[in-house]
Specification:
67% of the residues lie in helices and 0% in strands. The protein has 8 helices and no strands. The mean pLDDT is 81. Helix 2 packs across helix 4. The protein has 98 residues and is mostly helical.
Length: 98
């Protein structure tokens, strides 16, 4: 019986470009410096973010208690710009992201 290590089982997933891209986008929400956080939020509007990735940065920022109101404030200020970047059905999920 051959045992395959967990690392070898997961390696194709970890090295897959989609996984790396998703992890990188999610990591943008980890900044605590206000200037870097603002740049990450701006990237949501200017960068090549897919609609389903738009909320990843917001979730990261909002998960840090001192910043829990930041996603709501940013989404309120940028509602029209955000809504124009996503399919209409995504707009219904905005309250969950904020």
């Amino acid at each position: 019986m051959v045992t395959v290590s967990l690392r070898h089982q997961c390696e194709p997933l970890i090295l897959h470009p989609f996984t790396q891209t998703r992890a990188s986008i999610h990591a943008l929400g980890s900044f605590r410096d206000p200037e870097l956080m603002q740049r990450a939020l701006d990237y949501n509007l200017t960068g090549p973010i897919r609609p389903q990735e738009l909320f990843s940065i917001l979730q990261g920022i909002g998960s840090y208690p001192p910043n829990e109101t930041v996603p709501y404030e940013w989404m309120t200020e940028n509602y029209e710009a955000i809504a124009s970047r996503v399919p209409p059905m995504f707009v219904a999920y905005f309250p969950y992201a904020a």
